[in-house]
């Protein structure tokens, strides 16, 4: 069943009625989502306000990212950093404009608010960040983007600096809850020293519509993984071979479609019995269908044979472990079959197949595993599922450092309430709660997950590894 | 950036001559001449000026942007018939917006280089006075089954008449040069670019005056006497000269013109190129053939580059991409180039292009160069004027520039020229010519 409030919120008249009658009902904002594949300049001529502390260091990278996306930058003209925005702006025919840092902007709506707090040495300095957002946040457009940049606290030796760094996350999470009702998102991006040149594509993603359902997150950008590959801004997966498990329907299907749209040759894998669906999808996206039980002992061999047969000698560039099941039952009533089935599909098969498939993964490969909010927060009746999905997080954290020198990244994503056949079967009240418990006050769509997974599978994401990214509209559970 | 092309090719394509018709403002003396007639006059003029034996001709490569679909699309072939050239001379017609006749020239050069041909006429023509007025598709869809069927009876025609809606089906749609994707007029896109790069009305007007003044001076010095061939109109009048050029214009006169595309805009009829009728063509040969036939090569076609950008961003910025790329393919840096010639669709667009050619970030990001290609002043380019002064019959501008630059290299003793043209669809083209 569809989201009635969201449907209602799409109608201006309904919004007015609700407002004028004073009905205590907040109608969610329909999220702005990308209509097609990655674009060269996805934010053509939108306005962005950029602020920073005097000692902040990321102006060159921010200027490049914004300039490349076609953004019109507004920044403090009296700072040395303004020259970076001027330089990038002049090259794009979009000269940066002067902006008063602690005054309300007149007649401007910002699609993007960015504050570079990398130079913070003491929490007292964060007053400048407060002033910046305090005066600008009302000018943030619907479905806008708020981003704060910092240095990871665990890399800072000074306690005041570390405290200030951690303060950014609290700020971002609260701001996200305030702007969520207008469909806007908020993230903290922590950039390790030496990883500055990995920031640009990460910013491009989080500023774009592709991160529509990601909010309140902490993203860590590091240079731990070797970046051995150059890339272009469009069609990031061109020529890559990607395996998507559980791809016959739902989120997996959407991941396969989105990756194919970015140029990947997708192996549409699902269990035997889904031949019709996998074959149909493979045909539509010019991929190949593989029907095989991921828990079978020879599953990895079947995948390798399939690649050799269908794609010649090429290796496997991307693995998306999406296949998963739930067998919910209160722990006291849960039989061993339920426990074992969930663990073996969701975790054991994932570990076993990855180990073998890594043998044929070339440098710069990408592994993305589907975890779940349940794996972070736990859920009644899901001891088996939550254990398996938490295990996935442990797996990516441990595997990532071991393959970093091959340029391979390993990440997990944790979807929250996503509108699928599975969630449509949840009882009404629970389902409604699932939706409204998020800052964005609505469920996500399979394509929201697919966009994030596709980004993490791209060469652009070389700065992100060993982490888990929530795609939950900033769901209050486990946050 | 592309690497230097393999220049160890055995054959060079050279230009031995080029001519054009006078360039005439739309709906003037050339109104009765369609693009085929203009092309025919031009090709005949070329062969008068450079009398190659007809049996030597291998091909006629023509170009047009406003193709008279109802009459003939391969207008090159029609020109052969109308000019009385041999029926056995093959021809094709290309279209690539304002770079069209640069394309016909480089296609000809490519076939000469690979030994397919020795002698080719390349050129292009456009008659903006003869833009086809399209009937609404609804009328076409209703009428076509009746009109196209041999079995239709007068009753069918009567029935058809009753179905036609006087307003929706009869009023033809206005022809325009709007971009299909963005809906913008070319001038609106240029106006947008002027705003983006902060190009002032004064700078645009000054550049337009420079174009007119330089063109008038060159004309007075007899510089174009060999390049412009007279054209006889159906009315019996013979047109000898361009009619857009205003040698006596000044920045004061320019300043009095009203904005043309936007109320508070900076583009005017004076600093934008005019809708123009005309044709131009070059005679191209392999270097050996030219020598064997006793022709003096004026210049060789060394390299070219065709490119495209995002029409939603800066429609006409392309030459800033194509010009450095064409130079690189010739193995040249900007310092190796003696003459810069950029098509003047709008003064604003030219000024935007040279600004980006001189911008470090642009050249690093868009071209992968270490720094700016070259910092050019407006005075450094278009030494003999440009499209603002001569006019701009879309498909004739390329070979107009190529002829003039080939002659300029030959006469001035300079070594190289880099030509750049912006085009609708956010396309661009550039080529390097070298003295022979």
Automatic annotation (TrEMBL), chain A:
InterPro entries: KR_dom (IPR057326), NAD(P)-bd_dom_sf (IPR036291), Sc_DH/Rdtase_CS (IPR020904), SDR_fam (IPR002347). Residues 240-421 form the Ketoreductase domain. It comes from the Bacteria. GO terms for molecular function: oxidoreductase activity, acting on the CH-OH group of donors, NAD or NADP as acceptor. Belongs to the short-chain dehydrogenases/reductases (SDR) family. This is 3-oxoacyl-[acyl-carrier protein] reductase.
TrEMBL record, chain B:
Residues 14-288 form the Thiolase N-terminal domain. Keywords: Acyltransferase, Transferase. One of its GO terms (cellular component) is cytosol. The active site is at 98 (acyl-thioester intermediate), 392 (proton acceptor), 422 (proton acceptor). It holds the Pfam family Thiolase_N. Residues 296-434 form the Thiolase C-terminal domain. It comes from the Bacteria. GO terms for molecular function: acetyl-CoA C-acyltransferase activity. The keyword Acyltransferase applies. InterPro entries: 3-ketoacyl-CoA_Thiolase (IPR050521), Thiolase (IPR002155), Thiolase-like (IPR016039), Thiolase_C (IPR020617), Thiolase_CS (IPR020613), Thiolase_N (IPR020616). Belongs to the thiolase-like superfamily. Thiolase family. PANTHER family: ACETYL-COA ACYLTRANSFERASE FADA2 (3-KETOACYL-COA THIOLASE) (BETA-KETOTHIOLASE)-RELATED (PTHR42689). NCBIfam families: AcCoA-C-Actrans. This is Acetyl-CoA acyltransferase. It comes from Desulfatibacillum alkenivorans DSM 16219.
């Amino acid at each position: 069943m569809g989201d009635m409030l969201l449907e209602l919120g799409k109608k201006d008249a309904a919004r007015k009625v609700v407002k004028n009658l004073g009905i205590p009902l907040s109608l969610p904002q329909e999220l702005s989502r990308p209509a097609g594949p990655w674009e060269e300049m996805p934010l053509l001529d939108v306005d962005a306000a950029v602020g920073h502390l005097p000692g902040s260091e990321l102006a060159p990278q921010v200027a490049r990212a914004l300039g490349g996306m076609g953004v019109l930058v507004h920044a403090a003209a009296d700072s040395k950093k303004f020259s970076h925005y001027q330089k990038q702006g002049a090259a794009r025919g979009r000269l940066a404009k002067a902006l008063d840092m602690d005054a309300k902007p007149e007649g401007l709506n910002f699609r993007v608010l960015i504050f570079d707090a990398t130079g913070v040495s003491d929490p007292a300095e964060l007053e400048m960040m407060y002033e910046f957002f305090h005066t600008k946040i009302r000018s943030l457009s619907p479905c806008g983007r708020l981003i704060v940049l910092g240095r990871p606290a665990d890399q800072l030796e000074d306690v005041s600096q570390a405290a200030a760094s951690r303060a950014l996350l609290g700020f971002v999470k609260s701001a996200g809850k305030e702007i969520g009702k207008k469909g806007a998102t908020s993230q903290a991006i922590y950039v390790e020293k030496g990883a500055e040149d990995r920031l640009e594509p990460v910013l491009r993603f989080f500023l774009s519509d592709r991160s529509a359902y990601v909010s309140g997150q902490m993203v860590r950008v590091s240079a731990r993984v070797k970046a051995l590959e150059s890339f272009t801004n469009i069609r990031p997966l061109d020529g890559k071979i990607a395996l998507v498990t559980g791809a016959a329907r739902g989120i997996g299907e959407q991941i396969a479609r989105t990756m194919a749209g970015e140029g990947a040759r997708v192996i549409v894998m699902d269990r035997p019995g889904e031949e019709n669906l996998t074959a149909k999808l493979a045909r539509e996206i010019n991929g190949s269908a593989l029907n095989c039980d991921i828990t079978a002992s020879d599953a990895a061999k079947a995948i390798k044979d399939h690649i050799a047969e269908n794609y010649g000698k090429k290796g496997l560039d991307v693995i998306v472990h999406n296949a998963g099941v739930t067998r919910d039952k209160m722990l006291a009533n849960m039989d061993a079959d339920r426990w074992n089935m969930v663990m073996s599909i969701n975790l054991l098969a994932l570990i076993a197949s990855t180990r073998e498939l890594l043998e044929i993964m070339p440098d710069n490969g990408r592994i993305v595993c589907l975890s779940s909010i349940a794996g972070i927060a736990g859920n009644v009746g899901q001891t088996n599922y939550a254990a398996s999905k938490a295990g996935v997080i442990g797996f990516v954290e441990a595997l990532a450092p071991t393959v970093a020198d091959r340029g391979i990244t390993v990440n997990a994503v944790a979807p929250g309430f996503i509108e699928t056949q599975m969630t449509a079967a949840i009882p009404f009240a629970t389902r409604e709660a699932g939706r409204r418990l998020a800052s964005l006050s609505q469920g996500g769509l399979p394509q929201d997950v697919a966009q994030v997974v596709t980004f993490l599978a791209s060469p652009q994401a070389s700065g992100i590894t060993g982490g888990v990214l929530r795609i939950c509209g900033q769901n209050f559970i486990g946050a | 950036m592309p690497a230097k092309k393999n220049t160890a090719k055995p054959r060079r394509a050279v230009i031995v001559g080029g001519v054009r018709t006078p360039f005439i403002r739309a709906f003037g003396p050339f109104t009765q001449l369609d693009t085929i007639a203009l092309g025919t006059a031009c090709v005949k003029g070329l062969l008068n000026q450079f009398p190659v034996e007809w049996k030597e001709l291998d091909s006629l490569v023509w170009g047009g942007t406003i193709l008279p679909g109802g009459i003939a699309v391969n207008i090159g072939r029609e020109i052969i018939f109308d000019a009385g050239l041999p029926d056995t001379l093959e021809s094709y017609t290309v279209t690539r917006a304002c770079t069209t006749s640069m394309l016909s020239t480089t296609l000809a050069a490519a076939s000469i280089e690979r030994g397919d041909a020795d002698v080719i006429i390349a050129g292009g023509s456009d008659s903006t006075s003869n833009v086809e007025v399209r009937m609404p598709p609804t009328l076409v869809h209703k009428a076509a089954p009746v009109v196209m069927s041999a079995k239709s009876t007068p009753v069918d025609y009567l029935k058809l008449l009753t179905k036609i809606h006087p307003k929706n089906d009869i009023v033809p749609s206005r022809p325009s040069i709007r971009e299909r994707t963005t809906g913008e007029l070319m001038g609106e896109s240029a106006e947008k670019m002027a705003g983006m790069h902060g190009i002032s009305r004064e700078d645009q007007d000054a550049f337009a005056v420079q174009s007119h003044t330089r063109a008038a001076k060159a004309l007075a010095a007899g510089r174009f006497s060999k390049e412009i061939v007279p054209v006889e109109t159906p009315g019996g009048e013979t047109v000898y000269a361009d009619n857009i050029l205003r040698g006596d214009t000044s920045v004061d006169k320019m300043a009095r013109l009203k904005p043309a595309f936007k109320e508070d805009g900076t583009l005017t009829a004076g600093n934008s190129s005019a809708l123009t009728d005309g044709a131009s063509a070059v005679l191209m040969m392999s270097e050996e053939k030219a020598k064997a036939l006793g022709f003096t090569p004026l210049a060789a076609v060394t390299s070219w580059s065709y490119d495209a950008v995002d029409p939603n961003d800066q429609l006409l910025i392309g030459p800033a991409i194509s010009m450095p790329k064409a130079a690189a393919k010739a193995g040249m840096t900007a310092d190796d180039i003696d003459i810069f010639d950029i098509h003047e669709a709008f003064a604003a667009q030219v000024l935007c292009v040279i600004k980006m050619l001189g911008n470090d970030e642009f050249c690093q990001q868009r071209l992968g160069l270490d720094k700016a290609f070259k910092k050019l002043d407006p005075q450094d380019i278009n030494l003999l004027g440009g499209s603002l002064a001569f006019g701009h019959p879309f498909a004739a501008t390329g070979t107009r520039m190529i002829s003039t630059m080939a002659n300029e290299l030959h006469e001035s003793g300079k070594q190289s020229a880099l030509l750049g043209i912006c085009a609708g669809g956010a396309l661009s083209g550039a080529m390097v010519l070298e003295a022979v």
